[in-house]
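Sequence only, no structure available. Ideas?
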Amino acid sequence: MTDIQSQHDPRKIPIDKVGVKNLSYPITVLDKANGFQHTVGSINMYVNLPHRFRGTHMSRFVEILNEHHRELHIDRIGEVLQQMKTKLHAEEAHMEVTFPYFMEKSAPVTRAKSLLEYRCTYQVTLREKEDFILGIEVPVTTLCPCSKELSERGAHNQRSLVRIQIRYHGFIWIEELIELAESSASSPLYALLKRKDEKAVTEQAYDNPMFVEDVVREVAKKLDIDPRISWYHVQSENMESIHNHSAYASIERFK
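Reply:
I predicted one. Tokens follow.
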């Protein structure tokens, strides 16, 4: 049969990324407490396309993924990218994997256990070398310092998101980034709280007010002293409880 994708394209315009998005696929990631955690990733796979080709072979992306026996171990992404480059005759390959990661947490007073979900992302590019970025989105509580200072009765607080992306060498647990983000906010979040726990986390937040600016600076300060990390991008976003908008701050640094 005629290979339409390999036909010559006369427009002489190369494409930076072409491929498939939103493939759901079982993956395995390292879990500090339990060894491994099985989850489901939403996977994007791309390669570059030289100007002379009309298209790429989309089915080959799925074929490559399925060669990993219906379960992708995250430390084999480099192997997948190399296969993509080889089978699709590309100079560079890209993979993005976004997945839910669950961590067991104990409530601060009653020690009641529950699982809390975090969103993780691996962004990997293979050209001559492999470029790997680990990302984590951590929900936290922040309490407004200005509101605490001005109000005679209480202070407004909100659920917030801390997003951290890092390039690093050596090894870093996902849990390390989670704990770093939670310790930089007014209070962590928990899936399960009894009344004594609710009192404790409310008072912890009140005693530890944080602007979004405070949060990103606290996270950056801790990342700056970690010799394993070569680059980071930190974002903090407050879903404001007394405004119809979010407050936002960001820091990006090469070390």
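The chain is about 25% helix and 45% strand.
Hope that gets you unstuck.
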